Amino acid sequence: MIAAAFAYFNYKYSQYKFINFKETILYTKSQIFEPRKDRYIVVVYSSKMGDIEDALKLLAAKNSVLAIDLYQKRRDNKKGIVYATAGTNTLLKIIHRFHIREVPSYFMIKKQNDNGLYKQDSKIYLLDTQNIQRRE
What we know:
The protein has helices spanning 2-14, 53-60, 88-98, and strands at residues 18-20, 39-45, 64-69, 81-84, 105-111, 117-120, 125-126. It is of the alpha/beta class.
């Protein structure tokens, strides 16, 4: 019985999650975020912890980046990078839904339909900002 419960727990936490941007409202510097790309790298970070600009630029070289700031600092978007934030309740829902344990973390999402529904398309990775110079 314990083995079955453990297997079920591992199965539930390994499933990829969905996010609906019609229900989960994120804010950019001056407006509500509306996804325009089919894929995003979602980065959950805190601007209070330090600068991650170099890491975001490397990620943005291959895909569009949606950078969600837990410190809720609104910034201007840059090429390939959309800076977003939300209210505390929304941020907590995102953290809980995707099981974010440490920041900065990142994962891929992929468009599922035209109603703003996106599905997680990768595992969650910890963004290594210390060794960013060595990465290509």
